[in-house]
C-alpha cells in the first residue's frame, strides 16, 4: 500500500483485481451517478417550477457523493466485524453504524438544503422543518443503502477469495504435474545409467580402454545435461538433439561394427520446444531391439520435421517388433509424459513396416519462450 491508499486497507489484496484506490474510485463514480440520477428525477418531477438546474443537480450530487466516506467505513467494519456467519456483536455494530450514518447524513442534507436553497422560494425554512420526522423517515433508507454497500463489499471479498482459491488449486495441480513428470524422468535416468555403466564395464573387460573413456565422457555430458535442466519439463529441440547424438555415439562405441546412425534436423527447428529426454528412450529402444537383440548390423535414423503446425519426430531402426508387444519403462514413461504435458494433443506410435521399426512422435509446434 502506498500514499493515498496507505491509510486504508486494501479491500482486496494486491494479487486481486481491485485495490482500495480502485474501489474508492468506482464507489465515487457510483455515488456521483446516483446523485445525478436523483437530481434529474427531482428536476423532471418539478420541471414546471423553473428551478435553477445546476444548483438543483449540484445539491443532489453533494448529498450523495458524501456517501463515499460511509462506504469506506463499511469496508473497514466488514473486515473488523464479519457478518458471515452472523454474530450478535457484528450485527449490532453494523446496525448501529447504519443508524448513525443515516442520522448524520440526514442532518448534513438538511443543513445543505437550508444553505443552498436549491428549490428557490419553495425551499422550506428552518422553522418549517420537523427534524424528528425527517430523521425517522430517512433511517430506513439509510439501512437499505448500508446493506447495499455491505453486500457489494462482501461480493467483492468472496469473488477475491474464489479467485485466490482457484489460483491456489491451479498452482497445486501444476506442482503435482511437475512432480509427476519429474518422477517419470527419474525413472528413466537410473535405467539408462545402469545400461551405460554396464557397457563401460564390458569395454574395460575386453581392454577397450579408449572407447571406455570416451563413453565415460559422453555419459558425463548426458548427466550434466540432465542436472542442468532439472525441474524443466521442456527444452529446445536443438539441445535435445545434441544430447541424443551424444547418446548414440556412446551406443556406437559399444557396437562399432554393427551400428550406424544419422540425425536429420532443419536448423529452423532448433528452438522448437520438446519434452526433455523425450528422444533418448526411443533411441534406447531402437538400439536394444534393433542391434543388441538381433546381433546383426543395424542403422538408427532420427528425423525432425515440421508438418503444418505440428512437429514430427521419427526414430527408425532396422529390425522387427516382438509379439506380443511389451513396453518397458522408457516407452511407458514416454506415453505418460506426453499425456501429462499435452493431454490428447500429442500422439506416440510404434509400428513395424517390412524390416524396419518406426517410433513416431507427433507434437504441437511451440517455440521455446
TrEMBL record:
Task: Supply one GO CC term from the record.
Answer: membrane
* GO molecular function terms noted in the UniProt entry: phosphorelay sensor kinase activity
**What is the superkingdom listed in this entry's lineage?**
Bacteria
Q: By its UniProt entry, which Gene3D superfamilies does this protein fall under? A: Histidine kinase-like ATPase, C-terminal domain
The answer to keyword Translocase applying to this record is no
Pfam families cross-referenced by the UniProt entry: His_kinase
* Residue span(s) of domain Signal transduction histidine kinase internal region: 179-258
Q: What InterPro entries does its record include?
A: Bact_2-comp_sensor_kinase, HATPase_C_sf, Sig_transdc_His_kin_internal
What's the protein called, per UniProt? Signal transduction histidine kinase internal region domain-containing protein
Transmembrane ranges, per UniProt, are 23-44, 56-77, 89-115, 135-156
Q: Which UniProt keywords apply?
A: Membrane, Transmembrane, Transmembrane helix
